[in-house]
């Protein structure tokens, strides 16, 4: 459900009179940066398409969406950090696909990339929706890409609105 103004608390709380911040999925006026890895490009473009479609559906203007592409998942955190430090964005989205291989490399890439994305969000205070799929095979990634891309768009908008209320 979209709202035009964020509400700071529900009128009647589910928690016996304790004020609860109401989720707000109104993307109007929000500036969202998206960093997409180009490795496993077909999957990543599916994630990106679903994400941008959902951002637009939530009211984020085309002019307020900025997409940067990087070679692979390990490059995502640095670009997220640069975007976060620029002050030009209200939320960021990380998109990519790491598919398990027969080496330790999958674990290394998945763990380091995930930790880097989390660290950027915590260090900068900017919400980052992590849409980097880590799957056993390409079929799993293809099956999850549309839902994950849209979920990340919703998470980015909701978290940007929530942090605006809390700050």
UniProtKB/TrEMBL annotation:
The active site is at residue 105. Coiled coil: none annotated. GO terms for molecular function: 6,7-dimethyl-8-ribityllumazine synthase activity. 5-amino-6-(D-ribitylamino)uracil binds at residues 39, 73-75, 97-99, 130. Its EC number is 2.5.1.78. Pfam families: DMRL_synthase. This is 6,7-dimethyl-8-ribityllumazine synthase. The lineage of its organism: Bacteria, Pseudomonadati, Pseudomonadota, Betaproteobacteria, Rhodocyclales.
